[in-house]
Amino acid sequence: MGSVGDVEGFILKSRSPSCGIKDVKVYRDMEKGAAVALDVGFFGGAVLKTFPHLPVEDEGRLTNFKLREHFLTRLYTLAGFRRIKPSRRMGEMVRFHTENKLLFMAYNQKELKILGRIVANLEKLPVDRVFERYESHLHNVFLRPSRYTSNVNVMMHALGYFSKGLSHREKSYFLDSLERYRSGKIPLSACLSVIRAWIERFEEEYLMKQTYFEPFPEGLVEISDSGKGRKL
Fold it and tell me: What does the CA dihedral 93, 96, 97, 101 come to, rounded to 10 degrees?
């Protein structure tokens, strides 16, 4: 299993005897009969054991928009960190952390604070140790999908960058959109598209660099995606 080299994550065949990561039927013998248990497949189990921190999903679960969004966000963020690891430069880590702040805020504010302290490195630890600690807590950020309440908080935070330049009607429209998102009537992308337009309009450089507004290539989201499962 270690011979696969550098990988960012796995998409495995759903319920496959070899690749399934859950709900794989286990039978007592080769004879026909009812399954006696549900478990992981041989290969799927080995993946989970060998790569416990990487994003692993089966194809069936990825039909859920929220789960796929979480998987891709985690996948691309961890890949971004892996690209800067060989540099062992604190400046690269600071840049990575800064560009992902709002994304981390939406996922896990507790871990965001811990990552901030690691980057500050007040203990003056060796760079290798700092990268090691940062990566460990980076994995913790994505233990679960972001909650809709956290996304609302992040978007309210982003709104503060434009509040002085917006008209009352523009603010009211956006706040109404947030309420509709909160109640499940519109997807998160509807609110994010408004903020992205304001980022360009006001040339807000800090927000332009925030991965939160496009954590993975937009082309990976199909226009038919409904956003089901948003409130996980």
Answer: 180
